[in-house]
Amino acid sequence: MAPLDTNRFVTLWVPMQPVLALEDGGSGLTYAGRSHRDVALKFWELDDRDVAYRYEFASHGAMELGDVSAHHGWCLHGAPGITDEECEGRLAFTVSYFVDGCHVLPDLSKPHGEDNESYASWVAE
């Protein structure tokens, strides 16, 4: 999760290799539709059962080099774990654009720890 106090940002997901559709064994992203508008959402307290009944899910399908997927910065999204020997790993580049003048959250312990590395180099600026 981004350490930003704004609802005005978008994230682009750019695959660095072809990605098969989920139904073909691929590992692309799945999005929880309208989750970015869920003001009751306490993301780090939900489990899979809670998420499953709250949203409709969609995947972008197969992607080729040069394709880009865009989603609202607060949209819940994820990809299947890569554990099956037949499933290729995924390599992607992401970039987020946010409104000028937004503030960094005062308590950086709230966003998920897995994301801390991705913003550690610029968040203090």
Describe this structure as you would to a colleague.
The chain is α+β, with helices and mostly antiparallel strands and 125 residues long. The chain has two helices and eight strands. It has helices spanning 48-54, 113-119; strands at 4-5, 9-15, 30-32, 57-59, 69-72, 77-78, 92-98, 103-104. The strands form three sheets. The chain has a three-stranded antiparallel β-sheet with strand order 5-2-7, with no helix packed on it. It has a three-stranded antiparallel β-sheet with strand order 4-3-6, with no helix packed on it. It has a two-stranded antiparallel ribbon with strand order 1-8. The chain is globular. The two termini are 18 Å apart. The mean pLDDT is 77.
Q: Mind summarizing the main beta sheet?
A: 3 strands, antiparallel
- Count of helices? 2
Residue stretches low in confidence (pLDDT < 50, at least 5 long) are none
For the largest sheet, list the strands in their spatial order. 5-2-7
| Strand/helix succession | EEEHEEEEEH
Cα shape: globular
- Give average pLDDT, whole number: 77
Residues in β-strands, percent: 15-25%
Helix content: 10-25%
Number of strands: 8
Distance between the termini: 18 Å
The chain-level structural class is alpha+beta
Radius of gyration (CA) equals 15 Å
Write the layout of secondary structure elements.
Blueprint: E1 4-5, E2 9-15, E3 30-32, H1 48-54, E4 57-59, E5 69-72, E6 77-78, E7 92-98, E8 103-104, H2 113-119
Antiparallel strand pairs: 1-8, 2-5, 2-7, 3-4, 3-6
Keywords:
125 residues; 3-stranded antiparallel sheet; 11% helix; 24% strand
